[in-house]
Amino acid sequence: MTETVSGSAAKRGKGGRKGLKVERIFTTPGVHPYDEITWERRDVVMTNWRDGSVNFEQRGVEFPDFWSVNAVNIVTSKYFRGAVGTPQREHSLKQLIDRVVRMYVTTGVEHGYFASDADAEIFEHELTHALAHQMFSFNSPVWFNVGTNAPQQVSACFILSVDDTMESILDWYKEEGIIFKGGSGAGLNLSRIRSSKELLSSGGTASGPVSFMRGADASAGTIKSGGATRRAAKMVVLDVDHPDIAEFIDTKAREEDKIRALRDAGFDMDLGGKDINSVQYQNANNSVRVSDEFMRAVETDGEFGLRGRLNGEVIETIKAKDLFRRMAQAAWECADPGIQYDDTINDWHTNPETGRITASNPCSEYMSLDNSSCNLASINLLKFLRADGTFDVQNFVKMTELIITAMDISITFADFPTEKIGETTRDYRQLGIGYANLGALLMATGHAYDSEGGRSLAATITSLMTGVAYRRSAEIAGVVGPYAGYARNADAHKRVMRKHAAANDEIRTLDEIDKAIHAAATKQWQECLKTGEKNGYRNAQASLLAPTGTIGLMMDCDTTGIEPDLALMKFKKLVGGGSMQIVNLTVPRALAKLGYQQEQIEAIVEYIAEHGHVVDAPGLRPEHYEVFDCAMGERAISPMGHVRMMAAVQPFLSGAISKTVNMPEQATVEDIEKVYYEGWKLGLKALAIYRDNCKVGQPLSAAGKKEEPKAETAAAPVEVRPVRKRLPKQRPAMVTRFSVAGAEGYMTASSYPDDGLGEVFLKLGKQGSTLAGVMDAFSMAISISLQYGVPLETWVEKFTNMRFEPAGMTDDPDIRMATSVMDYIFRRLALDHLDFETRSELGILSAAERAMQANGEDPASLHAPDAETEREILAQSAEITRAPAPAPSAPAPSAPHSSVEVIESRQGRTADAPLCLTCGTKMRPAGSCYVCEGCGSTSGCS
């Protein structure tokens, strides 16, 4: 654990303050963290499975052997810096982590954070170990920017402001554009802009905020399509007492009607479709900021006044319940607007003397002052669940300390998109520590997501995390001073700390794991209050729950943020290519925790693999079904189950929670009203809903409802055996001499005269040697399998990317690098004997094809016959009698390419999620955003 050191031996920081003493957590003195990891080389080739095009390729990257294919692909393609194919390109996770960590350590030393150089070294080693072992991750901008020649932007979340002047509105457009260009998102409140029912100083009528939203939306759409790191994300908020609130509420619902009309007229209105750009307001999330006064008027069916922006006087009186119904109706139609609870937000505000909290970032988890930003980091909770089912409280506390220290250091060196944002962030130093894998942790410990036990465990962990974060913040304040805005807000900040501590005292634990965490959390809050009273606090905010989209994949998390597990089946990519559908590894762990024997566990897992759910699984007790409830599937968690979980953890967060409450298609407007109302009563800060299939502009996969198999006449079973097709005595053959890393050999590939490859013989090593004998045996096995009808592409899938020595450079211009002799042989066979379409699906292209692809040309054109050849073929062919066209049949369902598509294949219906615009994979929910498992792209700002 890190602690403030006393005594004259401590290195002095600024103002003569003492530095932090750092203890080791996971590392060993005298041993670098990298030396305790087994590293291996991987090839990253990412394709768009719809057209076979290669989106990204980098071979020979270096990662720990326990990192999944997905994590390696995403980190390599998203976070490695430098032009691909140049020596400057990063090629190892070591380079990436070192680039980031060294900036944190150097800055910490320069600004007096550490008591000694030895403490700085321990800090460096622990941070390196934690990142390499996927124990936590900083948000994406840190990986994009820190340690590069680019501005050192570390924040993913921004809040802007806009006043009732044209100059301010134009500044809003500009500032938003700068933030979008950097791949981040921003939110703001438009309520200062006078309504369309008020007059301008010139005597004319004002345009109103909704009209200015149109221009900002068009700007966001343009920048989004301009090649930013990821799609633009934005939040627009309007106060419920604004005279234009009804128009704001209806804005996106009206556009959804337009989408339906255009779709029915034959226009392409899918997300990313060529005609969707004609629809307005689609680039922002909209939220209504409601007050307690308004919600009480809804309760009592009372009236509510809408106030002019110029003088604050009521210019229109409405029925509160009618406006509340209008919000729910619009959300039922198009999922917007969401709702933010203004008085709750500002009751937990640590800086009210500086200004109110009026808005949030696009995903609604960061809520703070106008013109501010927040950098995020998320802990992988499953890394702290021991094999015996207990939670590693001690190391979780130490890890939280480590992360908060690093996050605060980052504000010291960070760059910001505007001067106003930089000034506010440096003065208030807002942080956003959170976590991922809560859903997997709950299942692994035998807790249902929607249960008192599950909520108690989530609450105690969240309370412990935030208590440690603020205690560490107070300790850092004792070393380098509190945040600049603390003095004027000290009483308010300490009041909020007491509110957190009081909420912790109200947690009711149910079992031993909760009690141990709660006891630690209580101790941390006591120390926090004591240290904060003495030193003040370094950070105005400390914690929130972000979507953890891309970084969740980087950490190989099963679940994102606060979300439950998506489903019990997962799509898993395999090293060396290929994929498979597997039952979540959390399931057998949960079954063991619940007391099932190994034989029972195997039977239940086998049942889930076949059916996709646990209902009627052999030997599984019905009272345990709820432990395996998921966000989607046969036993989906109810909407209020999601709301109750949010309410359990909200009192222990500085900010809010990025989460969408998913509702079934048959949900009513009244159901949405109930969710919005209960969110207010339960003390949430913000809430958004999504009703399945409420939006037209969402591309869906081709998975339709499963057809019932037709009944067939019973017949005696017939055993069908494959028949061997031998090659003729005289057959065409191709001999290839090859060299892989200096090891030379020969390959003879013989073909049927008219039907592809049928025989392969390999010569490698001296005649009579063991290696030569093994290669002869291997050649015969492959040859016989080809003659029995095993497709060549099956062998290519199995043996390409296989890794063993010799490996390295080859003398083949089409295959410059090979990970083994087998990798080279089967790539060469694919190039010589498979058609272009099959090879492109396998990611195997010739040098000429790759060159064309790099130049933006279609490599398939190399294989298209020219017109003269086609005429010759027609002239030589016999007369063709055209048969009647067969009746159209339903297209065969495509193989799943993501976990969501696996769920679709099990449920027999499409999931309401967008397709990734980069690689075509169906995305999965991550908080209030979506993330692509294929390439890591997100629809939000995590």
UniProtKB/TrEMBL annotation:
Point out the signal peptide segment. none
From the UniProt entry, list the residue stretches annotated as the region Disordered.
Answer: 883-906
Which InterPro entries would you find in this protein's record?
Answer: RdRp_reductase_class-2 (IPR050862), RNR_2_N (IPR013678), RNR_lg_C (IPR000788), RNR_NrdJ/NrdZ (IPR013344), TSCPD_dom (IPR024434)
Composition-biased stretches (Pro residues):
885-894
SUPFAM superfamilies, alphabetized:
PFL-like glycyl radical enzymes
Every copy of the Ribonucleotide reductase class II vitamin B12-dependent N-terminal domain together lies at 44-134
EC annotation from Swiss-Prot or TrEMBL: 1.17.4.1
Any GO molecular function: ribonucleoside-diphosphate reductase activity, thioredoxin disulfide as acceptor
Per its UniProt record, the required cofactor names are: adenosylcob(III)alamin
Q: Which UniProt keywords apply?
A: Cobalamin, Cobalt, Disulfide bond, DNA synthesis, Nucleotide-binding, Oxidoreductase
Catalytic activity line of the entry: a 2'-deoxyribonucleoside 5'-diphosphate + [thioredoxin]-disulfide + H2O = a ribonucleoside 5'-diphosphate + [thioredoxin]-dithiol
Function in brief? Catalyzes the reduction of ribonucleotides to deoxyribonucleotides. May function to provide a pool of deoxyribonucleotide precursors for DNA repair during oxygen limitation and/or for immediate growth after restoration of oxygen.
Name of the protein in its database record: Vitamin B12-dependent ribonucleotide reductase
The record lists the organism as Actinomadura gamaensis
